[in-house]
Amino acid sequence: MDKKNIQRIRIMQYFIEATVKIIKEEGIENVTIRKIADLAGYNSATIYNYFQEVSHLIFFAAMTFLKEYTDALPRYIAQGNSPLEKYILIWECFCKYSFAEPKIYHAIFSSDLGGQPEDLIQKYYTIFPTDITDLPEELIPMVLESNLTKRGRIALERCVKEGYIKEENAEEINEMATLVWQGMLTLLLNKRRNLSPNEAAQVVMNYIRQIVLNANHFEFPARQ
Hints:
Elements: H1 3-26, H2 33-40, H3 44-47, H4 54-63, H5 67-77, H6 83-100, H7 102-109, H8 120-127, H9 140-143, H10 148-161, H11 167-189, H12 197-216
Helix pairs in contact: 1-2, 1-4, 4-7, 5-6, 6-10, 6-12, 10-11, 11-12
Protein name: TetR family transcriptional regulator
DNA-binding region: 32-51
GO molecular function: DNA binding
């Protein structure tokens, strides 16, 4: 990497770190361009030389909070003895961490990111590559995908290939699981359900297990 790109990444990191600090101290809803610029030591206009949209900068800052989830993910799937169990465990891990930080996960997976949001996660990991250096190779394609529906389909792929999920049922299972998660996240954000993160995760996981069971006509035992 040449010096110009190194300098560019360094300045982007300054802005991201400033945004993270504001999120931790004031909440993601209180992030403003002026606050970011003042904290980073640059003028507000400079931010747009590095980030196409303000929402992109908030996205990158929110991504730093995802490391706890990506660190936990290998431990979760290690408990599974089959692709189907691992698929369920991937969702369990995601529900646990996303419902504990609904605003963060909304910023990453649900918010309006303006133009060209598709490559943002991959771009983030070029700036902070050490965040996923310990991930097993099998998880990298899913983690690098920014579209939640596509992430879910990647997670389901081994189940299809090894016959645990019928090919004709895969899209439906994936879509329903994604929508259940999205619905619960919206309810939590809007304070329409008085549930703890753990309670919300249990509700969603019960539905996801039922979705898999009903689509494939076999019983999958609930985890405690």
